[in-house]
Amino acid sequence: MERDGDGLWTYTTVPTLSELYRYEFIIDGNYTIDATAPYTIRDGEVLRNVFVVPGEIGDLTMVQDVPHGTVSKVWYLSSPGYDRRMSVYTPSGYEQDRGKKYPVLYLLHGGGGDENEWLNLGRSAQILDNLIAADKVQPMIVVMPNGHIGMTAAPGENSLGYVGAKSSRSAIKTEPNLYEATFMDVVNYIDKTYRTIPDREHRAICGLSMGGGHTAVISANYPDKFGYVGLLSAAVRSYSKDDPRSTEMTQDFDMKLEQLFSNKPFYWIAIGDEDFLYEANKAFRAELDEKGYDYTYLESDCGHVWKNWRHYLSEFAKYLF
Hints:
The chain is of the alpha/beta class. It has helices at 56-60, 117-120, 124-133, 178-181, 183-193, 210-221, 253-262, 278-291, 306-318, and strands at 2-3, 9-10, 19-23, 25-27, 30-32, 40-43, 46-53, 70-77, 83-90, 104-108, 141-145, 203-208, 228-232, 266-272, 296-300. It contains nine helices and 15 strands. The strands form four sheets. An eight-stranded mixed β-sheet has the order 8-9-11-10-12-13-14-15, with helices on both faces. A three-stranded antiparallel β-sheet has the order 3-7-6. Strands 1-2 form a two-stranded antiparallel sheet.
């Protein structure tokens, strides 16, 4: 930034592409938001300002003059014995047409997120509203659970209040892969509570980063439950028997994948060419290729960033149902 004679600091960027952007100020080494701009988005425990450059991509993330869906914050009793929260998007018309049933997309967040992340940073409600209104995707219910099994709800919105928000992800001690092992709690609650079409042909699951790893494990362990699987910059690895992190959910993973692909799911993998998980995804795809499993692959530019994940959601949704 440059300082003028009146002490005002300014910076002018080069022309930028249509997109949703975040920014922050660092003043004498101290991080701060732009107090004169009220538009902010929380990412984990960090707050940043946000603006949108209009255009096809930027407009997709914004509220347009189209019919809007409804977002609910829903509490359910998990099998470990405590209440947990998830966000649920129902498309426009859900409340009015009581006789209509809908397919469901389970949308999982990354390691720094919670049940609010896909709504806040991912702009999932706006993206779905706009794509449905343009007849580019089918009206669907979108379920966004909290992927930290030891966390009951987002920081500051759980029983810990504002104390220990950063540590609330592990407030309840759990076993490895317990989230994947109890994921059908979420599915069963949604099928019981909402007007769903409760079969694999009308049920999809996808996730980013940590949520992509969750998606890989969940879909393999419940091979007859999800007809569509999306791995977005996924935290996948080789689930070998010798892996010290191996649990019941990741044991015999090759056999589980074989059973999953015998049901011919639509399996979609997307990642940026600068993503730190690129090589892990490359190795995972090589294992699928070796077995002759059919999947669709999208490679974009950039790294482990929301710019990609919003784009991946808009593309993956077009294949569903």
